[in-house]
Amino acid sequence: MLNHTTLIIIITVIVSLLAWQNKKLLNRLIFYPPAVNNGQWDRFVTHGFIHADSMHLLFNMFTLYFFGRAIEGLYQPFLFGYGFVVFYVLAIIVAMIPSYVKNKNNASYLSLGASGGVSAVLFAFILLAPWERIYLFAVIPIPAILFAVAYIFYSIYADRRGGSNINHMAHMWGGAFGVIATIVLEPKVLPHFINALLSPGF
């Protein structure tokens, strides 16, 4: 039986591939404020299952694969075993809300990608193991907590630079949701994080 992380990845890859081959489908799934204003609220979710290109898809799914499997068990006891799926989907929705509020009347704004959900998973993992080594580009080892700080600064920089439909600020809001939701569901995670942070164990 497939774990929920793998199932999400399979669905995301299939939907992204189909959207690349069908522009009409892509336009229906992408986050577009005027369409949302007209009642297409499902775009708060669907935009998280399509990607700009193969590298965008690969980076998000690579990250989700490694960290989703590591933390999925923490959420499984909730919502009849579907806690992780709900956590991931809610992260995609919540991460988009600030951008929607900011661009509610912007007819030229478009956004796509699983950044909100993936960031929530990544930052939840950091709560559990802040000094665990993350391999940047699958080669360069870096402590998870330092990666998180760099990730935030890069997201701010990329958002200000613009030039793509990738919602970089969703990285930050998704990460914030991941941290808050995890602490709410399992309050013991916070003292665990603090203790782990103060004990690098190098």
Q: Which sheet architecture does the biggest sheet show?
A: 2 strands, antiparallel
How do the strands line up in the largest sheet? 1-2
CATH architecture: Up-down Bundle
From N to C, what is the helix and strand string?
Answer: HHHHHHHEEHHH
**Low-confidence parts:** none
Number of strands: 2
- By CATH, the topology is Rhomboid-like fold
Mean pLDDT: 89
Description:
The chain has one domain (4-198): Rhomboid-like fold, CATH 1.20.1540.10. Helices cover 66% and strands 4% of the residues. It has helices at residues 4-21, 23-29, 33-37, 43-46, 54-75, 83-102, 115-128, 144-161, 169-185, 189-197; strands at 133-136, 140-143. A two-stranded antiparallel ribbon has the order 1-2. It is globular. The model has no long low-confidence stretch (mean pLDDT 89).
Summarize the structure.
The protein has helices spanning 4-21, 23-29, 33-37, 43-46, 54-75, 83-102, 115-128, 144-161, 169-185, 189-197; strands at residues 133-136, 140-143. The chain is mostly helical. A two-stranded antiparallel ribbon has the order 1-2.
Strand and helix map with partners:
Layout: H1 4-21, H2 23-29, H3 33-37, H4 43-46, H5 54-75, H6 83-102, H7 115-128, E1 133-136, E2 140-143, H8 144-161, H9 169-185, H10 189-197
Antiparallel strand pairs: 1-2
Transmembrane segments: 6-23, 44-67, 79-97, 109-128, 134-154, 166-185
InterPro entries: Peptidase_S54_rhomboid_dom, Rhomboid-like_sf, Rhomboid_protease_S54
Pfam family, one: Rhomboid
